[in-house]
Amino acid sequence: MTIAHVLGFPRIGAQRELKFAVESFWRGDIGETELAAVGSTLRRRHWQWQKDAGLDLVSTGDFAWYDQMLNTAALLGALPARFGFDPKALTLKQYFELARGNAAQPALEMTKWFDTNYHYLVPELDAETRFDGGVDWFFYELAEARSQGHNVKPALIGPLTFLYLAKSKAAGFDKLGLAGRIVPAYRRILEKLAAQGVEWVQIDEPILALELDAQWRNAFAPIYREFSTAGVKLLLATYFDSVAEHAPLLASLPVAGLHVDLVRAPQQLDALLAAWPQDKVLSAGVIDGRNIWAADLSAKIEQLSAAKTQLGNKLWVSASSSLLHTPVDLAQEDQLDAELKGWLAFAKQKLDEVVVVQRALNEGRGTVAAQLAVSDAAAQSRRTSARIHNPAVGGRVAALTGADAKRAHAYPVRADAQRAWLKLPLLPTTSIGSFPQTREIRAARAAFKRGELPQDQYIAAMQAEIKLVVAKQDELGLDVPVHGEAERNDMVEYFGEQLAGFTFTRFGWVQSYGSRCVKPPVIFGDVSRPTPMTVEWSRYAQSLTSKPMKGMLTGPVTILQWSFVRDDQPREQTCLQIALAIRDEVVDLEQAGIKVIQIDEPAFREGLPLKRAAWDAYLEWAGRAFRVSASGVVDSTQIHTHMCYSEFNDILPAIAAMDADVITIETSRSDMELLEAFGTFAYPNEIGPGVYDIHSPRVPPVNEMLRLIAKALEVVPAERLWINPDCGLKTRGWPETEAALSNMLQATREARSAI
Ligand code: GLN
Ligand code: ZN
User: Fold this and answer.
1) How many angstroms separate the most distant Cα atoms in the chain?
2) Measured from the CB, is residue 549 less than 6 Å from ligand 1?
3) What's the pLDDT at 497?
4) Burial class (CB in 10 A: 0-12, 13-18, 19+), 381
5) 119 is catalytic
6) Which one of the ligands is nearest to 728 CA?
7) Is 111 helix (H, G, I), strand (E, B) or coil?
């Protein structure tokens, strides 16, 4: 029979129980026993859900107190020596110190898990790294699931993915050189699983979806040959993109099965089937593990029918990736109407979807006729609903011309027009937008949202805040002030709430890192802007000062990137719709006399596809969307954009093609190193490299900023250099904000007089 399974389930809990328990533990409010009990309850519940849904195997190894890569390091015993911990006796407290740092040591570095918004802790390797075994939590959880009567498939992050994603301080360190040590460690784990009677082990090697160089590709066969006699059946799991380019390798690897992502890369099924060995399982990930849409189940069954005929019981059904990237349970959403809810599926609902596809394949569609009828109806209503399809929006996107994605004149002409009225001093100063969000601001916003604070009082409270922020900036002497963004809880949610085509969930939380979760907006339909979103705040702010007020918007790519995006049209299309909505706002701001406008795009780089071969196409449409949002204004209106910490090197042509008049970037923590590429590339427009780190309350002294300004001046001519902090100041307090900005302005004055 075709087996139904998933690669992993979210661990945070439908009510974010794990987050709250872990944070209580950190505060010392609960002890280890209580924390352990919460973890155990969650695991038990999630396994039971998998069993109740009808999955043949339940997943273990997907639970982590903080992160799955750190868990793998803890299992292998490969901890950075700098902490001085005994890997075999690692305590929970020490585990959290690795994740969060302690008085003596900074935490492990954190970075994005492929192209998801999940962040893993980066293992540290050096020539001394050993994999002699660590804590046995992995085996404890396996035993726990089995004692509850489950048929278990434990999951491990594979050795090559572990090494590939790890880092070493030593330049040119050969991570693969550690294979000789890590392979026996994995083999011991597999043998131990075999000894315990485990039949299937899932081993995740998502790096197979990247463009691997030969050295890494060639490492698979010998390593997996080592594992093939360990006594367990291995299901090699890949996800997030196609692995078809490795089809011959994958068909010949001595593993019992392969899992592939048929949501991100449906086309790879045919390529793999063309030469699939009869004795090997192919696990088809057809239910989307990255998004919140209910699957069109009939289409999924159809998608697999040829594979079922060819492979019979060797075809398995699953979700595309671990369900870690989806919220837990849609049943809790009591504020969505039935139609919208019918379009959605969270992790728990996706378990049912996997099983419906499996049963249809095993026993015929008739056995799941009722479920298919519901799914067909939802798919049909998504195709036709007037809530989703707004012909006016589609028409506007279709009518976009080349001129709509281009400013009237090139930057040098615009710069003259802008200089003529802005009359800014050399090295103009500005900020990135937000100012400290005090407890009072948050309280007022929350009370307004709950309906407890009348609108006029809310507006008065926000205006008072704007007044204060503008006065402070005038006092400090900032050349281009902002209104401070007090009315925004989040730079995407604020716009999503005002745009048609968006909705919000109550409990749609997804783990971002550790105990940190995000609740992305849901873009379900054509996006349009019913009314101006920021104009009144900016107009009010401008009325308080004679300086040019900068209007603040979030860009189309970032709004797209930080939302759950509809899957019934290309992302590019959705992005252009958002771009048009932002364009309308930009034009309205200009009409209202706001002629410096910043369109933030911190997630621009994040959207890059996993495979480099697909980069150009993405950069092309993402850049176009930005320009559509920015190009409705006259030459003299100055468009800024902002990006946070990013590797810009390899995408500078695309950044330049965005053609913002001014770009501000985060550079202080890299000691201006990130800026060097802009110099080498001869970036043509204006740049504001951040001169101080806003992530810490530390107030950098004047000479420190002066040194960074001097470094920047080596790369960017003074006429095109702006002075600003690295990013928004909303997480900072007022005292350090004032002190740091005051130092920044002093440094600027000194730099000006030295030019
Ligand atoms: N304008 C935003 C702010 O200042 C930018 C935030 C960001 O770059 N992430 O808060
Ligand atoms: Zn930023």
Assistant:
1) 82
2) no
3) 97
4) middle
5) no
6) 1
7) strand
* Residue 593 Rama label (left phi>0; alpha psi -120 to 50; beta): left
- Indicate the average pLDDT of the chain: 97
Q: Whose CA is nearest to atom 5 of ligand 1?
A: 728
Residue whose tokens read 């007020």: 549
Q: Is 486 in the pocket of ligand 1 (CB under 6 A)?
A: no
Give the distance (Å) from ligand 2 centre to CA of residue 562.
14
Which residue shows structure tokens 């406008």?
A: 597
Instruction: Give the Å distance between the CA of 491 and the centre of ligand 1.
Output: 7
Mutation choice for ligand 1 from 487, 491, 644, CB with most ligand atoms inside 8 A: 491
How many Cα atoms within 13 Å fall on the side-chain side of residue 640? Answer: 28
Q: Is the CB of 711 under 6 A from ligand 1?
A: no
Dump pLDDT digits (tens) for 421-463.
999 999 999 999 999 999 999 999 999 999 999 999 999 999 9
Q: Is the CB of 619 under 6 A from ligand 1?
A: no
pLDDT tens, 609-668?
A: 999 999 999 999 999 999 999 999 999 999 999 999 778 889 999 999 999 999 999 998
Instruction: Give the position, in ligand 1's atom list, of the atom nearest the Cα of 552.
Output: 1
Number of neighbours of residue 369 by Cβ within 10 angstroms:
11
Mean pLDDT over 139-160 rounds to 98
CA-to-CA separations, 196 to 201, 204, 275, 625, in angstroms, rounded: 12, 21, 34, 55
Query: Residue 535: pLDDT above 90?
Result: yes
Mutate to test the pocket of ligand 1, among 642, 665, 737 (most ligand atoms within 8 A of CB): 642
What's the pLDDT band for 669 if we cut at 50, 70, 90?
A: confident
> 684: CA distance to ligand 1 center in Å?
24
Q: In terms of DSSP bridges, do strands 638-643 and 662-665 run parallel, antiparallel, or are they unpaired?
A: parallel
CA atoms within 13 A on the CB side of 188: 13
**How confident is the model at residue 646, as a pLDDT?**
79
Give DSSP secondary structure letters for 151-207. Answer: -EEEEEE-HHHHHHH-EESSTT--GGGGHHHHHHHHHHHHHHHHHTT--EEEEE-GG
ipTM above threshold 0.90: yes
What is the per-residue DSSP string for 679-729? Answer: HHHT--SEEEEB-S-SSSS----HHHHHHHHHHHHHHS-GGGB-BB-SS--
Is 552 touching ligand 1 by the criterion CB < 6 Å?
yes
Q: How far is the CA of 727 from the centre of ligand 2 (A)?
A: 4
Residue 314 counted as an annotated binding residue? no
> Is the CB of 434 within 6 Å of ligand 1?
yes
8 A C-beta contact, residue 13 and residue 328? yes
d(C-alpha 314, C-alpha 11), whole Å: 29
Would you state the structure tokens that stand for residue 115, as one six-digit string? Answer: 């192209």
Q: Flag whether the pTM goes above 0.90.
A: yes
Interval between CA 358 and ligand 2 midpoint (Å): 45
